[in-house]
Every structure is written in structure tokens, then in C-alpha cells.
Amino acid sequence: EKYDFGLIGLGVMGKNFILNVADHGFSALGYDLDQGKVEGLIEEAGNDKVSATTDADTFLAGLKRPRKIMLLVPAGKPVDAVIESLRPKLDEGDIIIDGGNSFYTDTDRRFESLAKDKIHFFGAGVSGGAKGARVGPSIMPGGNKEAYEHIRPIFEAASAKVNGEPCVAHLGNGSAGNYVKMVHNGIEYGLMQLISEVYDIMKHGLRMSNVEMKATFEAWNQAELGSFLTEITADILGVPDDLETGALVDAILDKAKQKGTGKWTSQNAMDLGVPIPTVDAAVRMREISSFKSMRVEAAKLYTLPMAERADLSTDELKAALYTSFIVTYAQGLHQLSEASKEYNYDLNLEVIAKIWRGGCIIRAKFLEEIRKAYSFNKSLQHLLLNEQIAELVKTNLPHLAKVCAEGMRLGLPVSALAASLNYFNAFKAERLPLNLIQAQRDYFGSHTYERLDRPGIFHTEWEA
Ligand code: 6PG
């Protein structure tokens, strides 16, 4: 009896995903060079739906045709190495699914190369961490639509469900799935940075204790700010460190690492000419955080008098965070809609909002509002142009402005909050002062300008 599904890379994600697939009635075979991981999986599964091997030929011979082989190995060279080792042994119609955070152009290259041998290749972002992989992640596959039908039943069964609907869908052509996952991670960076800025204001501006902050995030999580990241923030604030002298979070070094997906999102947004300043700010803050020793030195040099308390309520902070969350999703979705045109992905933003409602790191109650906005108007150009969303933003915006102002008055870095506010203020401005920039360009470089009152291209000899 052959297996329905094959998985290469039995690290935590791979092991958990294969167990998840088997929970839903599919048989699955794992492959890893590490004997310990192979034995660990067989032991943990404890049933004949799951097996594993360290031998590539046994693995390939054990799978039903067309073979459905998912890779959960680190992005980059390991993915190419696995593909090249399998390739001579695969048959026409076989399917390889890369479940890692691969860069989208790598996915396009692999897709085209494997297509020459009539092997289908999918880039499928998987979000939700180790637990998500075990109990139901959000899965973002892109690739050949017909071939997707072979993997659809397995992915739909293994994915998270919201109101019974699976958090997975065929998202588009070629590297569409990896691209969507990349932007998902960019939004993730933005939301995490926004939460950390609000935490900073709570801690240093309002002098709230960890217990008070935990209770506040817990309460927020019950209402419109309900989201995975709000929830885990409350959890984190309640975990004591091993010396029981305080919360563990206070003992953690304040240098944030990154594996690149947020930076890629920002870099690609700039290539496309799509502004996503909240994500940019989040990447920048991780960079600034990494220069810890310089910061320590600068802190000694710039001992400025710290303002007294922030004049803010937690309700105002909640409204500010909510508004900036909305703006962050709006930026990411705008990037997706422009990328879809540029790369012919044929993305459906309603479907993307739908599969982000559960399983993934950026899952949030608010995603249902986003889904509705794109369902109401399939060709909505920008989330902030939807009337219901506009009402939400209008109600909460004054609080975001006040929170930014207070944060700045206290000398706290509020880069992502301010980036969200400034983005919004620019986005909704009928007139921006960029007329002056056009005049300056024409002044020093004869770059010409257009006029508001009549058509044509103009140049002026500005100097008298
Ligand atoms: C997810 C996460 C996952 C991973 C991030 C972390 O959706 O499950 O995004 O993919 O945890 O890549 O990224 P950084 O290490 O760059 O913070």
C-alpha cells in the first residue's frame, strides 16, 4: 500500500505537518537523512498511516502517483539541493511543494526549470509556526491550477478552519504563493512593531506594571483588536523569569533578529513603487535595535530630561493600535494588488483575507472586515477606500495622532505608529506639497512639470 503524501525535512515543522495530515485520514511518508528524526516521527505517530525513511529510493517508491512531495527545509540552497537530488528519479506529472519562506524569484526559476520535465512545482507559504503546522496552519499555495487539484484535499483537510472554511486556496500562478507569504510576513513585522511601541508607551509613559499590561492586552484581545499577536503579547507579559524576580520579557536582550522576509517585502515594494512605510519602519527598528553597543553609548551622551507621564488613557492606545493595524493591512494588500498586475499573479484579495482569518501569525478578527470589503467590491483599489473601513478609521484616527504626539513628546521612538499616521494623512490628502518638488526639479534640472489648470508639459526659466 503506497502513501498519499510525502514530506521531506522532518524538523519540527515537517514532523508536525505530517502528523497533522495523518490526523485527517491521509497516509504520509516522511524522508530525512537524520535517523533520529525518522525514528522520532514513527514513534510519535504510533500508527500505520505514517512512516518515514532515510532512503530516497524507498521514499519515492512508497508514494502514490502522481507523487505529492512537500519540502519543509530551510529556504535557499537546501531547497535547490533537494530538488536536484530528486529530479532524475521523478516522473512526469509529479508534484513538488516548497513549504518554506523561499524568495519568490527562486520559486519562479524552479517552477520553470521543473516544467521542462513536466514536473509541477508549488511555492506554498505555510504560516502558524510549529503549533500551526500541527493543528492547522494557513497555507498559501501558488502554481499550476489543475495540478493543485491533486493536493487540494490534503491541504484543505490539514489547514486551519474558520466557520468550517479552510484557510488555504490556490492563490495564483507561479510564485504567487511565496509572494503572498512574503507580504504576510511584512504585515507581521508591522503589527509586531506597532504592538511593541504601544508596550513601550504603556511601560515608560504610563508606568504600567507587567500585570496591568497583561490585563490590558487580554481585554483588547476580546474585542476588535482580537488577534493572535495581541493574544500572545498578553501571554508573554505573564510569564515569570526563572529567577522569579520579574517577567521573563524584561530579561530578554532588546536586539531583534530577522531572517529576511520583512526586508524583502520592503525592498520589493520599493521596486514596485508601492508605499508600505509601516513595514519599512518595522524593518528599520530591527536594524536600529541591532546596534546595541552604540545605543548604550549614545544613551550616556544624550541624557535628556525625560518628560513626565504620558497624558493618555489605555482606551486611546487601543484606538491608536487598531487604526495603525488597519493601515498596515491596507499597505500590504495594496502591495499585493500592484504585484498581481506586475507579475500576472491574478490574485483575489478577498480569498487572501479569507485564508488569513485563521491559522497564520497575522490572523485577526479584523480580517473578516477586510474580506467583506473586497467581497462588496471585487475591484476595490485600496482598502482605505471602502466606506465601512473609512468609518472605523475616522472614529479612531484622532487617538492615533494623540498617541504619536505623546510618544514623541516623551522621546520614545514611535516609528511604526507615526509611519501609519503619516501614510494615512498623505493618502487622504487631495493636495500634497509635491507641487513644490516639481518646481524645484524644473528649476535645477529642467525636468518639466504639468499644471492643474490645463494640459501639457511645461518648463520655466526660473532664474531672473
Ligand atoms: C509564520 C512566520 C514564520 C517565521 C518568520 C519569522 O508565518 O509562521 O512568519 O514564517 O516565524 O519567518 O521571521 P523573522 O525571523 O524574520 O522574524
UniProtKB/TrEMBL annotation:
Record PANTHER family? 6-PHOSPHOGLUCONATE DEHYDROGENASE (PTHR11811)
UniProt function note: Catalyzes the oxidative decarboxylation of 6-phosphogluconate to ribulose 5-phosphate and CO(2), with concomitant reduction of NADP to NADPH.
Entry superkingdom: Bacteria
Which InterPro entries does UniProt cross-reference here? Answer: 6-PGluconate_DH-like_C_sf, 6PGD_dom2, 6PGDH_C, 6PGDH_Gnd/GntZ, 6PGDH_NADP-bd, NAD(P)-bd_dom_sf, Pgluconate_DH
Q: What is the annotated quaternary arrangement, including any partners?
A: Homodimer.
Q: Which family does it belong to?
A: Belongs to the 6-phosphogluconate dehydrogenase family.
State if Oxidoreductase is listed as a keyword.
yes
Domain (6-phosphogluconate dehydrogenase C-terminal) spans: 177-463
Species whose genome carries this gene: Roseivirga thermotolerans
Q: Pathway involvement?
A: Carbohydrate degradation; pentose phosphate pathway; D-ribulose 5-phosphate from D-glucose 6-phosphate (oxidative stage): step 3/3
Which keywords does UniProt give here?
Answer: Gluconate utilization, NADP, Oxidoreductase, Pentose shunt
- What name does this protein carry? 6-phosphogluconate dehydrogenase, decarboxylating
Q: What is its EC number?
A: 1.1.1.44
- Name the catalysed reactions: 6-phospho-D-gluconate + NADP(+) = D-ribulose 5-phosphate + CO2 + NADPH
